[in-house]
Task: inverse folding
């Protein structure tokens, strides 16, 4: 499988009243063609910011200050943020859909207008062809009566429907990568399931890769092939879905899994929350960011800076000093 | 069990809360223009209070032999046709401006608050009648409304105040009404009423305090408009007439002598502008310091 | 949409009726004999006998019950009879008809300039926040809302007219059909004065509306689609930011009328504003009454138009 996107040591920070917030602090990951990966982490861990950085959609007071985003051989960060090269990537090569379907569509433009403008821009279609294609796309994502509804306004659609429109928009120009930032968080559970299933089908049909950014491990369990666990602006564990769920090795991942109820668990097993609060990203100490909440910490963790990602297995990496192997296998029984 | 790592813990805790007043002060004094506004307002207030001591001459009676004198050592800003010292009239004019401004504001605010509160709280027909009346009044330009009321009532400072109060109170009533509506739906108000508080008590004790910050901002911003309107009325000769010292009428008097004595109309006009500017700047500063979210609304 | 328009229309008529009531009864509230008021100086100076006064009273219908007087007056209005001016001794309708186009000419020009320029300035300031464009535009806007309009007029007359002699003549008004060049020279300064307050308000509103809109999620979506900035501003941001600005345009029109009173006085322009002022001094209540009504009618009408355009701009209202 060829590599499509590689992010190396991405650093994005925000200037705030209280100090410099390093939302993304040395993030590295890759995406291959036609694969589905999950980027999982708590609110505030920097996962959304990281994806916005890839698209160079970060505005003041935020700033991308380091790293590379290699896509099709070029470092996207070298392009001017709103320049013609970056704009030709956005929507056409890498597309993004957002969390809030209620506010992500322009209320004064019809769905048709918002769909066709991309087709006209990137696919150089004329108005008639664009409109036909827009109706086709709406049908594909499961919006019935598309030929009538194309002239409706966003407020005529429910949240789930709007998200379908967003997905149609995202895939309309056959991008190589579709980034879905918390696509189902704002929707109810049944809609969530439908939407995810549809997204998987669409992405396969269009032969694109999908990045699902979420805080919900359950969402990625079914659909992602590889998962990245993110904490305080960095990846703390990465591996195949099977490895992450079956053999989690980073204390944070282990903690996350302990919070989730499972069908196959034994009776009487208690859900164990992770103690403590997400870290304040201002003035982070050089040591491991998870340290205050960690149950596996050793003396080395207090003295040394946060380690690099090290492999524990084939394609399975963690960022940890502690030996979690035995304890890990205990907790997943 | 987790050990508490003291050094790490410090970093994990949120930064210390800056006290609310210090933050207010910092934001408020941030912009130089706001500070400038405060300075101007202080000068205005000092002029108004200490006018008899600050003014070099009697503003109402002049020396006819010194009519239309150019700015000089004797008369810093010159004199008008009656020989009255412009500077003294300017200083005394601050009294008129402040008097009209504040009395109008107080009257309009009280009436506006009462109307808005009653309309918002009781709803139904009361609400409809009151708010429709306010809408109708608001459709009219302030100056025209004040002009017409003053036309019916006659000139003089009292009538100007009445006219301006009627012209400005709809604004307050509207804001108060909106705020009352949003506060009324709050649970704690419901709790109050469940406890048996009377309507009056609920309104005054609970709804009112929450609506104060936006009202304070609105008041400062409106003061500028009131002063401009008063100046306009005086300029037209319907407000305060000479020998009364009102900046607007001074501009009117000076207009006739524009070619020879431009200072006569320039000085009072500049005073009006500076004062209005000062009120607006301070109002902006207050709004930003109290709640920047109001920026779109007020 | 139709129900929306109809509701607004009914409201407008309702308000207009209330205004007629207020205007009518305000005049009746004045102390003294209404006949004296209506007859002006003549009657009070005692140059008329009691008989003459009684017959005049009957002629003016002042001896009938108040409510009937009101309906008579209302009826007269609807038939186009606006009364006779005490001061000018002319039919008020004719007086207004002569002066109205002049005020309209200045007012409409000022309104267009104020809003077009205001929107443009506000837009630029909003999308280039913090740059020199923003500073210039905000400063201009601040000056615009703080400067007394009549003083600006006098300043302009002094500098441009008297000292620099760039614009002569600057007082009075000649019909553009009679002498277009003269008319242009005469209206430049008054139109600028009339426009400045509205321009400032609109620019400020537009700026803050723009700032609000570009922070919205749907703008972020537009960027993520790879659109150019110009397209995003014009197609996505503009319509949304115009919504609050348009609602205030109604107030802007009112401001132009309010300013007209001052500007016409300074520049000696024979428009409705000046008529109103002179009538107030002359205590010509017939003119004041009818003039107020006409102005009220225009303002209510323009507010209605603004409301309707607001409905057109925001599809959420249009389709309910």
Result:
């Amino acid at each position: 499988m060829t590599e499509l996107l590689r992010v190396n040591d991405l650093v994005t920070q925000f200037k705030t009243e209280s100090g410099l917030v390093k939302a993304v602090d040395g993030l590295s990951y890759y995406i291959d063609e036609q694969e589905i990966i999950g980027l999982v982490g708590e609110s505030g861990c920097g996962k959304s910011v990281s994806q916005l950085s890839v698209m160079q959609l970060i505005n003041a007071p935020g700033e991308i200050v380091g790293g590379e985003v290699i896509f099709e051989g070029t470092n996207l960060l070298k392009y001017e943020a709103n320049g013609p090269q970056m704009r030709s990537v956005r929507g056409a090569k890498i597309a993004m859909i957002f969390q809030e379907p209620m506010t992500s569509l322009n209320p004064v433009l019809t769905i048709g207008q918002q769909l066709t403008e991309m087709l006209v821009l990137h696919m150089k279609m004329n108005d008639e062809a664009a409109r036909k294609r827009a109706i086709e796309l709406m049908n594909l994502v499961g919006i019935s009566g598309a030929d009538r509804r194309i002239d409706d306004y966003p407020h005529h659609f429910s949240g789930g429907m709007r998200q379908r429109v967003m997905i149609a928009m995202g895939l309309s120009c056959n991008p190589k990568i579709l980034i879905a930032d918390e696509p189902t968080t704002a929707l109810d559970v049944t809609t969530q399931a439908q939407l995810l299933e549809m997204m998987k089908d669409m992405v396969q049909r269009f032969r694109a890769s999908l990045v699902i950014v979420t805080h919900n491990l359950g969402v990625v369990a079914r659909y992602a092939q590889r998962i990245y666990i993110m904490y305080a602006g960095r990846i703390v564990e990465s591996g195949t879905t099977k490895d992450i769920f079956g053999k989690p090795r980073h204390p944070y991942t282990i903690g996350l899994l302990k919070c989730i109820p499972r069908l196959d668990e034994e009776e009487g097993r208690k859900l164990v929350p992770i103690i403590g609060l997400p870290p304040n990203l201002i003035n982070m100490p050089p040591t491991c960011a998870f340290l205050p909440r960690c149950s596996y910490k050793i003396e080395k963790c207090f003295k040394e800076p946060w380690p690099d990602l090290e492999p524990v297995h084939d394609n399975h990496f963690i960022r940890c000093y502690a030996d979690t192997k035995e304890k890990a296998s205990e907790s997943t029984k | 069990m987790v050990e508490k790592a003291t050094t790490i813990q410090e970093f994990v805790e949120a930064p210390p809360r800056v006290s609310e007043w210090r933050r207010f002060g910092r934001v408020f004094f941030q912009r130089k223009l706001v500070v400038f506004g405060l300075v101007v307002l202080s000068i205005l207030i000092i002029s108004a209070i200490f006018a008899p001591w600050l003014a070099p001459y009697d503003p109402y009676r002049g020396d006819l032999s010194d009519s239309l004198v150019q700015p000089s050592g004797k008369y810093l800003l010159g004199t008008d046709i009656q020989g009255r010292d412009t500077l003294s009239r300017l200083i005394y004019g601050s009294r008129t401006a402040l008097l009209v401004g504040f009395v109008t504001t107080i009257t309009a605010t009280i009436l506006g608050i009462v109307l808005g509160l009653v309309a918002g709280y009781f709803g139904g027909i009361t609400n409809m009648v009151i708010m429709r009346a306010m809408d109708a009044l608001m459709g009219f330009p302030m100056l025209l409304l004040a002009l017409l009321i003053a036309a019916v009532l006659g000139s003089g400072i009292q009538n100007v105040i009445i006219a301006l109060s009627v012209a400005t109170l709809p604004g307050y009533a509207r804001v108060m009404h909106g705020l009352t509506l949003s506060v009324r739906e709050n649970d704690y108000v419901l709790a109050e009423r469940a406890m048996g508080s009377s309507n009056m008590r609920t309104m005054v004790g609970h709804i009112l305090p929450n609506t104060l910050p936006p009202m304070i901002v609105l008041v400062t911003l409106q003061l500028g408009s009131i002063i401009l309107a008063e100046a306009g009325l005086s300029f037209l000769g319907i407000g305060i007439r000479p020998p009364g010292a009102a900046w607007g009428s001074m501009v009117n008097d000076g207009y006739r002598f524009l070619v020879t004595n431009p200072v006569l109309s320039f000085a009072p006009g500049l005073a009006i502008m500076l004062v209005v500017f000062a009120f607006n700047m301070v109002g902006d500063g207050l709004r930003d310091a109290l709640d920047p979210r109001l920026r779109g609304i007020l | 949409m139709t129900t929306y328009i109809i509701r607004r229309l009914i409201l407008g008529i309702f308000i207009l009726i209330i205004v007629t009531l207020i205007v009518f009864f305000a005049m009746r509230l004045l102390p003294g004999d209404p006949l004296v008021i209506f007859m002006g100086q003549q009657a009070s100076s005692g140059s008329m006998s009691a008989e003459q006064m009684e017959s005049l009273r009957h002629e003016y219908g002042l001896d009938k019950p108040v409510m009937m007087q009101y309906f008579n007056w209302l009826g007269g209005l609807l038939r186009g009879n606006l009364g006779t001016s005490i001061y000018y001794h002319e039919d008020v309708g004719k007086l207004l008809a002569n002066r109205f186009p002049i005020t309209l000419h200045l007012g409409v020009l000022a309104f267009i300039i104020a809003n077009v320029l205001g929107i443009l300035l506000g837009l630029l300031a909003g999308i280039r926040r913090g740059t020199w464009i923003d500073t210039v535009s905000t400063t201009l806007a601040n000056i615009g809302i703080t400067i007394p309009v009549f003083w600006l007029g006098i300043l302009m007359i002094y500098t441009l007219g008297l000292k620099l002699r760039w614009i002569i003549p600057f007082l009075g008004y000649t019909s553009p059909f009679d002498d277009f060049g003269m008319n242009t020279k005469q209206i430049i300064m008054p139109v600028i004065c009339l426009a400045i307050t509205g321009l400032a308000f609109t620019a400020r509103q537009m700026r803050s509306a723009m700032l609000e809109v570009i922070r919205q999620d749907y703008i972020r979506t537009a960027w993520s689609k790879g659109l150019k900035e110009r397209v995003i501003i014009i197609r996505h941001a503009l319509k949304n930011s115009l919504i609050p600005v348009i609602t205030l345009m109604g107030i802007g029109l009112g401001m132009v009328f309010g300013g007209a009173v001052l500007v016409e006085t300074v520049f000696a322009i024979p428009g409705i504003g000046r008529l109103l002022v002179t009538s107030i001094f002359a205590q010509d209540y017939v003119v004041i009454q009818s003039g107020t009504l006409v102005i009220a009618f225009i303002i209510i009408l323009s507010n209605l138009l603004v409301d309707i355009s607001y409905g057109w701009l925001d599809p959420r209202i249009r389709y309910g």
Summary: Chain B touches chain A at residues 2, 5, 7-9, 11-15 (CB under 8 Å). Chain B has a mean pLDDT of 78. The first helix of chain B runs from residue 6 to 12.
